[in-house]
Design goal:
560 residues, alpha/beta, 5-stranded mixed β-sheet, elongated, binds zinc ion
Length: 560
């Protein structure tokens, strides 16, 4: 058995917890010696500076677009349907999401500490004079361990052997800074178990599960201060009203990341993931625990939105596409923005707002590759997807209307000529921009003449296509002018296809929070994929850091 001893103040940025502060007043300060007071003031000053920084971060002047106030959501008029279904768990049709995984945090063999979440004196230590309410989720402390009334019973039926124990104890008093001795001199006040997947050993195949017991200690200092080490719990976030972020979890970071990938990459429902874990890993997790792990992972990676948007705005070229998406039964659009290094998803209203906020904001100066939707035409520096145009020309050429078929065939032949010429030029040494336009001058004129001759055709589709080409003429011919530019929007369409299948299986998302979790997780997973980095490892690191309140690791760099 591995025993690790974690020293105090390791996780929390704050040195004084709510538990500490509640015990302190003018009288406790008066009892400290001048040296102790100085040392205490130093810690207080550091905490105050940290607190001020956090206040600034949360305010509207912050440079962070994501977090509590996503810019694209801020001036949206709330659709009444958005809030109607908030009590339901997100994108899952499983009806049995009734309890959270807080039911599951101790395995049954932990009899010695079975009642600890109830109150500190349950394990034979003196209760402090102050109320035993740590700043962690209140229900974690108040709830009696064991099956909760009304909860489905399968959360804690499984007894797994403990593979490691980690002791969490403070080394120094928060008030007088005196040495407290190690954990053996202190009393355990709470404990929980975390099931996780062991790190991969190169050369080995397969998966090994671990079950780590975390024990937290407390002790009363000679100065009278009651010191207690507590699991990290993030402050509530208005953007995630139903998702708590805490170190106190049954599902460890690597297992949570695997569950996310089983859901988002492999498109399994919560129920199927439960079945998979049970059949292949002999691990019993409730659907509620699985759902919570996915949403909490979404909240963990949410701060990366800032980095993704920044990378998107710096890109030279963005492929953009959109498809329908359902959120709580309301029709929405799922957008994808794909650059050389970033894939970014966003769900919003079926209008121009998301495109405007992400790319028409003055910060993006690259080229937009898209289809011919009128919204994209607001952006001048763009490319048209030729696959769409060629499909339209082919459609006309197959028409039973003789005139339309004849013109369509000619247009299709011209586009094919252009396309072949572009491919041929790409094989050759680079030529000055505009060389091919000059070379294809006659064919370009022929296409224009066809468009002008048919702009008032009685055939509706031919008329529309001729007008579309004339209206967007220079943009459509840009790839002839500069053959190095891409011809199609396949890069975006291919990525969106995966989520179109996902939408058919899941029927969309059920709440704004579920949508947010889905889009940010999908963005991070796809970005890892195009950067050639293993998404599982990266998600694990991010979830691990977020659950301890640490700085998140930066997105993986692009592999050559
Ligand atoms: Zn002390």
């Amino acid at each position: 058995m591995i025993v690790t001893y974690i020293r105090g103040w390791y996780y929390n940025n704050m040195q004084l917890t709510a538990h500490d502060l509640k015990q302190m007043n003018k009288a406790t300060l008066a009892r400290l010696s001048p040296e102790q007071l100085l040392s205490f003031s130093e810690r207080m000053l550091e905490d105050l500076q940290e607190a001020m920084d956090r206040l600034n971060q949360n305010s509207n002047n912050s440079s962070r677009p994501p977090g509590s106030m996503p810019p694209w959501a801020s001036d949206d008029t709330q659709n009444p349907a958005d809030t109607a279904d908030q009590d339901h768990a997100d994108d899952d049709k499983d009806p049995v999401i009734k309890h959270s995984d807080d039911d599951d945090y101790l395995s049954p063999e932990d009899t010695s500490l079975d009642n600890v979440p109830e109150a500190p004196d349950a394990i034979g230590i003196q209760a402090p004079e102050v109320s035993p309410t740590p700043p962690i989720k209140p229900e974690l402390v108040k709830r009696v361990a064991g099956k909760q009334e009304g909860a489905k019973g399968y959360g804690r039926t499984q007894a797994l052997a403990i593979t490691a124990t980690v002791y969490h104890a403070r080394t120094h008093c928060a008030s007088c800074n005196a040495c407290l001795g190690d954990y053996e001199a202190q009393a355990a006040w709470t404990a929980f178990c975390t099931i996780d997947i062991a790190e991969h050993i190169p050369g080995n195949a397969g998966i090994t599960l671990t079950n780590t017991k975390h024990i937290f200690f407390e002790t009363k200092c000679d100065c009278g201060h009651h010191n207690r080490e507590e699991p990290y719990a993030a402050m509530p976030d208005v953007a995630w009203p139903k998702t708590n972020l805490s170190e106190w979890r049954l599902v460890g970071p690597r297992l949570a990341a695997m569950i996310v990938l089983l859901s988002k990459r492999h498109r399994n429902s919560r129920k199927l993931i439960r079945e998979f874990l049970l059949h292949f890993l002999r691990l019993e997790l409730s659907v509620g625990t699985i759902d919570q792990s996915i949403r909490e992972s979404g909240r963990s990676v949410a701060p990366l939105e800032e980095e993704l948007i920044r990378d998107l705005e710096e890109a030279a070229l963005a492929y953009v596409d959109e498809t329908s998406w359902k959120e709580a039964g309301v029709l929405r659009w799922l957008w994808v923005f794909r650059t050389l290094t970033v894939v970014f998803f966003m769900v919003g209203k079926r209008d121009r707002s998301i495109f405007c906020k992400l790319l028409l904001n003055g910060r993006f100066n690259g080229i937009v590759m898209s289809d011919g939707w009128v919204v994209y035409r607001e952006y001048a520096n763009r490319l048209r997807c030729w696959a769409h145009l060629i499909r339209k020309a082919r459609g006309l050429s197959e028409s039973y209307h003789t005139k339309a078929a004849d013109v369509g065939l000619q247009m299709l032949a011209l586009f094919t000529t252009f396309q072949n010429a572009i491919y041929a030029v790409r094989e050759q040494p680079e030529q000055p921009i505009g060389t091919l336009t000059k070379k294809l001058e006659n064919d370009i004129e022929a296409l224009k003449a066809l468009c002008i001759a048919n702009r008032d055709s009685t055939h509706k589709k031919l008329r529309a296509f001729a007008r579309e080409l004339l209206l967007d003429w220079d943009t459509i011919l840009r790839q002839i002018h500069d053959p190095s530019l891409p011809l199609t929007n396949n890069e975006a369409e291919r990525i969106l296809r995966h989520w179109v299948i996902d939408r058919r299986l899941s029927n969309g998302t059920r709440t704004a929070e579920g949508t947010r979790s889905f889009t940010i997780l999908a963005s991070v997973i796809e970005t890892c994929r195009i950067r050639g980095a293993p998404a599982w490892d990266y998600l694990t690191q991010v979830i691990l850091a977020a659950r301890k309140g640490l700085q998140l690791p930066a997105l993986p760099i692009m592999q050559a």
